Structure formats: structure tokens, C-alpha cells
Amino acid sequence: MSRVDARLLAALRRRLGADAVRDDPAQRIACESDALTLFRSRPAAVVAPRDRDGLCDAVRMLHDAGVPFAPRGAGTGLSGGALPPPGGVVLSTARLDRIVSIEPDVGRAVVEPGVVNAELSRRAARFGLRYAPDPASQITCTLGGNVAENAGGPRCFRYGTTTHHVLALEVVLADGRREVWGNPTAESDDLDLRGLAIGSEGALAVVVSAVVRLLPIPEAVETLLAAYPDVASSCHAVADVVAAGFRPAAMEVMDRLAIRAVEDSHWRAGLPTDAGSVLIVELEGAAERVAADVVEVEALLRARGPTRLERARDEAQRRALWKGRKGAGGALGRLAPDAYVMDGVVPRSRLAEVMAFVAEVEAETGLPVANLFHAGDGNIHPHFAYDARDEEQVARVERAGARILRKCLELGGSLSGEHGIGLEKQHLLELQFDTATLEAMRRIGAAFDPNGVLNPDKGLPLPRGCAEAFHRHGRASAR
Amino acid sequence: MSHAPRPPSRPEGRTDLPPQPADLLGDGLLACTHCGLCLAACPTHAVTKAEAESPRGRLFLMRAVAEGRAEAEAVAPAVESCLGCRACEPACPSGVPYHDALAAFRARRPPSPTRRRLLAVVASPLRLRLFGTLLRFLVRTRLARLAQRLGPRRWRRAAATLPRHVFPFRPRPGTRFPAEGERRGTVHLHLGCIHPELLGEDLVDTVKVLTREGWEVVAPKQPSCCGALHAHAGRSAEGAALAAETLDALGGGDAVVSAAAGCAAHLHEHDPRAGVEELFAFLARRGLRAPLGPTPAGRVVHAPPCHLRFVLGDDHATDAVLARIPGLHVERPETMPSCCGAGGSAFLEHPELAADVGAAGRDAGGGGAPHIVVAGNPGCLLQWTAVHGADPDVAVVHPVRVLRRAQDAADEAAAGGRSAAEEA
After folding, report:
1. B113-123 and B236-250 helices, crossing angle to 10°
2. Which of A128, A192, B297, B367 is surrounded by the most beta carbons within 10 Å?
3. pTM to 2 decimals?
4. CB A74 to CB B39 under 8 A?
């Protein structure tokens, strides 16, 4: 593996412009972590091309020089997917932020990878359209990053994750060649490379542009807020709603600690701070249908004995509720110096069980855990509040996280709902997949990236010991 | 007259969550969870898209320094490129006291020569007067225009911020301007530093608007700088001392008002009980009495000063007051960056970045169509002047000047009506 040297940087600067290649300490340190601060790795440089041709040339030049790199959008990923490989660089797609076109009549848009998720919906709104996947970080996160991690969000219960909304990808391969994967107009019959790329964390190719689906903004929306004395009641209520055949746009649960963190912040939403949990259910669709459904869903929620049950009065209250829900992760920063947000999935019917297990782990670990999760999907997000300056706490958090993920698998779930595997969970992959499957994944990776420069060591299982090279809190951060 | 109590500007800590550990970074760095929601609010990140030039990136760098993983000098350029607009604070779910962290970082380093000189000038009434005279001389002799064309790069940008028309307003200390009509009360008017030296017409109009509204206006007992720039530069003690002096020189009346949002914000944060109000917030709260006539202004783009929005939370008062003017169309472009790029003295220290941020604001405001940009703060006015350059279609003014015109128009209409009646 070659190192980043002055000649390479000079060549990149000549091609991309001096402002696109930065190797001063501030730029390098700032990109040591994405939103998962459990790990740090210092890149040798941050390369941020201004346009698509520049991006392709940057990939080719880094590949030719044998320099590994991690693509990075807004750095809001929670599994360490944008962490630079040791000795490598960060390839930022953030400046490629143009919405190339919006075609309202066919309901699609062509975007560059650095376009911010919420910005696309904002621009599409004037045509009565929106981009459905809505990660909590949607005001900041980029569509390129969404593709890399197959990002989700509350609405994905009904609408599916990123992969259901990307029709085609223009990608650049490791050697700089550009290809279009997928078909912008129809389902492809051939090998679904588009599907393969989504969620591959930049290990197969880098997104140059994407053709994404835009859906009509529904005619009517009703948002219900139910407060229960405990978390289990919320989980049961969610199961009841789905069992009765309803498909709400979203079903979100927050526990007491999460509620209180939100209510303590600028993002407070008027949630009852004495509740054991709150459940937010959003119904949307044709006005008549929603009006009928909301009454029945309310009855189901009431049957589980809520301490409070109400409909959002207006758009302002609905917005406040969602703002509170989406700011909850960040709001937990007020509990302790650091936060570790986990992501795991269980079958919906096992939610109450896994939450009881999380509570058990919390008690054993002795660190506060807040829970906010996409209950409709069985997608849990325990947030550990800890102090990274205390090595012993870090070790406890890591052990606790692994235990919870093992439990998810035991209950028939999976390691990731929407955050991806990244660096965080690759050591657990062998628990979910058998050797043959893992080997198949490795071979796919090697087929696209024989020299191992494309975000190596992410998502795919590593030989034992390699993960140590990154390890947490920069013990081995590349200088 | 008593004031309605103002809601606290930082409504934090409403529930009984355990407090953060107060050790190490007492500056609040530890509250950041690195979620990234602040990136969308940051005007420098919007133009550079660099993590190091985002609030989260800067906090990460400051933490790296505090934990001994980075040298302060090495990361300073990125941290110092912050405009200090504080848009990231209300965007932060974790309540990171960003400006405290930034001030603490700056306090540990010597200020840049530019900043040091500027602070020395504004804090001394005599030096300020000399500096003001010099600047006015440069503008009136058109030497400033020459420097803008031919000077070294640093001068060019600084010269571009100078208004084309300058006018000092230095009333004798303690001057009382009587209320017109029935007197509603007394307003102590904070004049500011550079504002009365260069853009005195804003203050003339402020006095006129207030007296027409029935307020007696009193000039401060002595000229004084509010200390905002010092606080901004991390020199909190000096910032506080100057604020205290300023409040002292103003004296207590029915109200203490500033036409400079930056000063109002700093004085309010220094002592919320002093009841300092930004001019338009004051007017909106007390209600307008004087009639307003139509002005030929047409389309007005309001670019609210960042501290009016994020510290005082009073930015909508300006829209509300201007909206009362018949025929005036006031816009607040959705994509307007949270800061014009002036950022205290940042536009002198990082001229390129300031220009890029300003250009983003210009584009958001619809640069092409003729319009008036209003911003109620002298620093913003200088920056917007530079941003719009010689564009003949765009005028940059303090909103009080638009309001004054509307009052004049109503007066003229009334006088016209009277004389017509007399003739009849």
C-alpha cells in the first residue's frame, strides 16, 4: 500500500484546484470521525472535488497511487462508514451538491451525491412531491451517504429504505471508469448492480449521481401521540396496529430518558416528561381513508391504557413532534460527554422482549441508556451515554453493544436496520452470516476493487486483528 | 413604564436531568455528541462544505486541543474562521453553549493584529473619533474608491465595505430630543462605535422616528463602546467592563434602545435586567402611533442580523413593523444564510470567506431584481455594501431609514391635505 506523498497531493491540486485538496491539521483532525465517535482515524488529507469529473479523476488518481480512501458526505453516519482507512484519505462528496433535474411528471430527480436529503424534498415540494426516506439527520445528511449505508428513517416502515427509492446510479469504479447501474425508466432485467451498490458503504464504487424516485406528498396526514407508563405498552400497541392491518407512515417510540432529554432542549416538543414511553404514529394518504383509519388506530392505542392520547392539532404541532423525535439523538448529549447510538433489528413481535433485555444490560453496565426506535420496523436504537475519557467505560459500552446485537440475532433479527455495518459491527458479521456467505461478499468486493482502495475494511468482515489498526479513540490514528 | 418580562434567551434545563460533568472543558465542549444537525445552520460550512469549518468540526477541534491531541495554533485557522453568528446554537439539540466554547478558545490565544487594532480603536472614544474622521476623509476624497481599485488586496476588500455616503452623528452628551405630540416616555439611545461615525443618518432617523412616536430621546452621557467585539474576540472581561460602562452612561429611563442589533444583543446578554431593546423590537412591543405613508421602495429583502435572530430572537419585529408600510413588500428569502459574512471583525480577517458567504446571501436575495436590502446592524450594512458593490439596482440601508421615509410620506400627505383644505 502506497502512502500519500507530496507528489500525489500536488497532482491532485493541479487537477482539482488547491481548495479541493487540504492536508492542514485542522481539516485532517476534523474528519477523524463521523457521527460515531467511538472510533477515530486521522486521514492524510481531505480531498473534496467540486464537480463530477473531478470526483472521477480523484478516484482514478488515488487508485493509481494505491492510496485507500473513504468517501464521506456530511459525516452523519453512525457506524463509522466514513472513517478513513489507516494511511488513506477522505474523499468528500459534500461539494457535489447540485440537483441536476427534477422531472415532476415522471416523479424523479437526478442528484449529485452531496445533495442534502431534506433539500431535495424542499425543492420537490413546489411540485407536490417529496423524497420519502427521512433519516433523523435529514437536514444535514447527503444522498450519497444515504445510498452508501442504505439509510432509513421513520417513514421507512411504510416506504422502505433508500434502495426502494433509487432507480439508477452513475458510479465511478476504482480505476476511474464511469458506469450507469440500474435503469432510470424501468426495472432492469439484468444483474442488479444498483441494488448491490446500495448499502455497500462505498466499497464497490463511488456514486457520481443518482436518479431517485419522488413521491406525491399525501393529501392528508394525522399524527397521534400516545403516552404509556412503560416501554412494553408502546411495543404492544405497535404490534396491535400492524396486526390489525394498518400501514402507518411511521411508528416511533421514545423512552423516558429520551423524552426528558428532548424536553430539556431547544427541540422540545411538549412530550409528557412523566411518561414511561411515548408512541408517535403517523397516518397519511387519501383524506377519507386517513379520517377513517385514525379513529380505529386511536381505539387500538387506547386499548393499551395510555396516560395520554392526542392528535396533533395542526402542522405546527406535527412539526414540533417530529423535530423533537429527530433531535432526540443529539439531545442525549446532555446526559454525558459521549453517546453511542446502536442500531439493531428484531422481529416486531419480539420488541418488548429485546427492550427488556436492553434494560437488563443497562442495569449491569451501570451507564444510562436512552431508547428511541422505529418500532414499526422492529429497529431499535439504544443510546449509551458514557465518558470516552474513561477507557474502562468505553470497554463496558462496547461489550454491552455487542451483547445487545447478539440478542437481536438470537431473536431472529439482524445487525443493522439502517446505520450500516461500517467499522462498528464487522466483527459481528460472522454471527449473522455463515462462512460461505461471507466469502461470497469478499469475492464481490475483490471483483470491483482488486487493489483494496475503495473504503477497505468497511462493511465486509476483516481478518482478525485488522480492526485493531483503527482502533477506538485514535490509539492508532495515522499521523 | 415597566417592561414586559422577556423570555430567557436560552430556555434550557427545564427537566430534572442530571447535570453534565463540569470538569475539563467547562466551556461546554462535552455536550456535543457529534450528531451533525448544526451543519445545516452554519454559513461557513454552507460555502466551504468542509467539516473543519462547521460548528461540529470546530467543537471537535477545540476538544482535541483541550484533550492534548492537537496544537491550538495548528487548528486555529479553521476555528477562527467562525463568524460567530450563533445560528448553530438553536440548531443544537444538545444545547452546546457554542459561543462560550469559542470565546474560551479565543481567550487562550493572542488576537490577530487586525483584531487587536480594531478593538483598541473602538474602545477609546478619542481614537474612534480620529479613525472616523480618517474614514470619512477617505470616502469623501474618493481615496477609498481608489484604494478599492488599486490598493493591495487586503485594502481592496476593506475599502469596499465603506459606504459611498458618510455622515457623522455625534450629539452632545446628554442631549434631549423632545417627543412630538403627547409624550409616551423617555428612551435612552445607545449610539454605538462605528455607527455614529459612518452611518450617522441611521441614528438621525432613529431619533426622528422615536420622537415622532412620542418618545423623548436622550443621548448617552458619554460616548461608549458596548464591548461586543471584545466578547466576540474572547476578551470577555473587557467586553463585560465596556458593557457595564455603556449601561452606566446610558442611564435608566423608560427604555434603553439600540439601533445596532449586535450591541443590543451583547448588552442584553451582559445584563438582561437592564432591559436593552433593539429598536424595532421596541417599536413592535410598544405599538406604532405615527401614521405611515407609502414609500416608493417596492421590494425589500430583510437580511436580519444574526444576533437579532439567534441571541435576541427578535428578528420578526422588523418584518412586522415594515409590513405596516403601505405598498411595501418585505421578503425573507428561505435560503438566506444565517449570517451576512461580517461576523464582527471577521470580514476584515477572512475577506475571501466573508465574500463567499455574502455572495450566497446576495444570490438568495435574488441579486438581479432591483431591491433594497435592509439589515439593522452597522457591521451587516458595511458587509452588504461590499457584497452588492456598485450594483445600481440594489440599495443597502438600515430599516429605520425606510420607516422614516414612510413617516415623512404620511406627514407630507397630511400637510398636502391641510393646504388643499385651506385653499378650498
Report:
1. 20
2. B297
3. 0.91
4. yes
